[in-house]
Every structure is written in C-alpha cells, then in structure tokens.
Amino acid sequence: MNTARPTLGHSQPVIRPGLHRSLGRAWLGGVAGGIARHLGWSAWVVRGGFIALTFCNLFTVGIYAALWMLMADEPSAVQAPGIMAASHQGMRPAGNDHSVKGSGIGRITAFSMLAVGVLALASRVGWGISSPLFWPALMAAIGIVLVWLQADTPATGRNRWLLVLRVIVGMSMLGVGISLLTAAQIGLDQIPVVMSVVALSISGLLVVAAPWFFSYLRKLDIAREEKLIADTRADMAAHLHDSVLQTLALIQRQADDPRQVASLARRQERELRTWLYGDVKAPGTLKAALVEAGGEIEDERGVPIEVICVGDVELDERLHVLVQSAREAMMNAAKHSKAAMIDVYAEVDRDADPATAQVFVRDRGVGFDMARIAADRMGVRGSIIDRMERHGGVATIRTAPGEGTEIRLEMKL
C-alpha cells in the first residue's frame, strides 16, 4: 500500500510584507524603504534608482510625491497585554529599538541640499527653469516638503506647538514662493498685490478648513483616550492573571492550612494595594523599609502586620538602626504575643526641636514581665534597647502580663 509522502522539492511560498512607507529609517518620506522591503531589495538600490531617474526626468519627483501620499504608513507593532503590563510597571525593560528615525532638521537639510542640486542642474541644462524662477520654485518646494514631513511626526504634548510652527513656516514659504513665481510673470511691482491675494486665499482656505481640522483633532483625542482605556484594561487583565489568579490557585491547594491561606491572602492584598494606589514609596525611605520588614515577617510568621506612616524621610545610618530595631520588635510580637494582629505606626516630625522619627509597635497579646526576662535573652535588651542607645536613640517598652505590649522607638534626624 502506497502512502502519500510530502514532496521535499517544493519550497514554502514567499510571503511579501505589505507595501507601506517605512518610517523607521526614512530619509524623506519612507517611500524607497517601503518599496525595498516589499520587493526584498536593498533600500540603497531603490533610493539610487529614484535619484538617477530624477536627474533623467523631473517627472520622477511627481511620482515620488504621489507615492508619498498614497502609500499607507507602516503599522506599529503591538505587544501582548502581559508584556505591556510588565513594561509599564518596570518589571520588563523595553527592548532596544533598532530603527533609527532621522531628526527633522537633518531630513529637511538633506532634502534642501538635494532640491538645490536638482533645480540647479535643471536650470543649467535648460530644462525649463529659468534663473528668475529658480529661488521661488525652491522656496515653494521646501515649504511643501516641510508641511508634508509633519504628517509623519507623531503629535505629542511636548512637540505639538513645534509642529504647528513648522506648518506655519512651511505654508508661509509656499505662499511667498507662489507670490514670487507669479510676480516674475506679471512684474515685480505687483508683488504686494500678489502676496495680498495669496495671503487672502490661504486665510480663506484655513477658515473653510478649520471645522474639519478641529473635528479631526477631537477624533484624535478620543482615539487617544480610548487607547489609554484599552491599555489600562489590558494591564489590569494581565496583572489579575499573573498574580491574583495564581494566588487563588495556591490558596486552593493550601485550603487545609488556614494560617498559610491567611498569609497568602494578606500578601496578595499588599501587592494589589501597591499596584492600584502606589502605596509604597521609593526604595531607600523609612516607610518603604518598614513596609518591607513588616511584609517579610508577616509572610514568615503568618501574623498580619499593619504599617501606617505619617511623613517620610530618606534612610541614613541611624534610621537603618531604627528600622532594624522595629523589625526585631515586630518579630518578637509575631513570635510571642499570640496577638491576632500587630500594629506599626511611624511618624516623622520635622517641626520638633530636634527633628525626630518615632516608630510604635503595638500588639494586644499576652504581654510579659520585663523583670522576669533572663539576662542572656538578647532579643529585647540587646537587639532593641541597647542597639538604639548605642546610636543615640531611645527605646521605651510598656507591657504587662495579659495587657499586650507597646514598644516606642525614637531617633533624632
């Protein structure tokens, strides 16, 4: 029995990319780069062909302009929602963009030099551009390209007014060029009249086009807002998938261990609170260090620790000691107090004389008798009281059996 076997001699069909203007490495409008990518050629070959054809026939400039207007822009790559969410939260660094977008000044300068060369050559060989028409034609051409270039530049809050200024300059150069071209035909003494007519014509065109222009801007703003909402929803969906759903799966597997379930739930609550409200300050501050210490002890011992900070300050050597002492107080409370929750309250008082930072660690547990603590027990005396005193701080402990414990730590700033 013969079985059909795949034919090895046939190659996979080549799928060509769509015909789009390549804006990543564009010199001018991205036409040559887009054609080269569509055909699988080198961009230098296509650019050289355009330049050679321009010297042979100026009609090539019109072809390039038509392609510039008719070819669609290159579609932007969209990341998956999970990668976008991680990138927005700083957990995944953005990849290097190898496409180099030429600066606006460099592109305008390059085109201006090319236009001067082409028009000068055309004037030299007698292709219909006389000396009186050379500079007006050049000015009008640069004005047109200056306006066209702005269509490929994304308008943001920072560069929007710069783009508007460039469009105004381009339109002005176009109007002056047309006026000079017209005046060269009817006489230089008619330049004021011609320029007035051109200015009125452009003003009338702007007035007529203003409603459509502002309508287009409103549509752009609406599209931008919709994209922001879609990105936010994608971020939320990715975060719920990456953290909350996984935590719920862990809770299901640990259902027979109430302490572990409570610890997982509290950890997820902290992560959600931080993600939603940015509740944790930048690393290197007193609040961030206390929140981190409380979270570590909560995960390790399974006792909820609530940290509240009023004011904040950058950590230094003495405040590191304050955080270490507070951490030891939280650990002792989690181990020995048998309390259902531990409260940590921190306050930075810059108006006091001298300025101070205070941390209170409270529990409503079993308490203890300071006098009955053995001399070799270093948790309270060595790690809290003596440590604070060695660095110029004060540690005060208020406790009694059955009444819970409050440890007050104070350090000068």
Give a structural overview:
There is one protein chain. The chain is an alpha/beta fold. Among the domains are: 195-280; 282-412, Heat Shock Protein 90 (2-Layer Sandwich). 58% of the residues lie in helices and 10% in strands. It contains 12 helices and 7 strands. It has helices at residues 31-39, 43-56, 59-70, 81-88, 104-124, 131-151, 160-186, 191-253, 258-277, 286-301, 317-336, 381-390; strands at residues 20-21, 72-73, 305-310, 342-349, 356-363, 394-399, 405-412. The strands form 2 sheets. Strands 3-4-5-7-6 form a 5-stranded mixed β-sheet, with helices on one face. A two-stranded parallel ribbon has the order 1-2. A hairpin with a 6-residue loop joins strand 4 and strand 5 (356-363). Helix 6 packs antiparallel against helix 7 and helix 9 packs antiparallel against helix 10 (286-301). Residues 1-11, 80-86 and 88-103 have low confidence and may be disordered.
Reading off the top of the CATH hierarchy, the class of the domain at 282-412 is best stated as: Alpha Beta
Structural class: alpha/beta
Number of helices: 12
Low-confidence stretches: 1-11, 80-86, 88-103
Order of helices and strands: EHHHEHHHHHHHEHEEHEE
CATH homology group of the domain at 282-412: Histidine kinase-like ATPase, C-terminal domain
DSSP helix fraction: 55-70%
CATH topology (level 3) name of the domain at 282-412: Heat Shock Protein 90
Envelope shape = elongated
Q: Which CATH architecture of the domain at 282-412 is right?
A: 2-Layer Sandwich
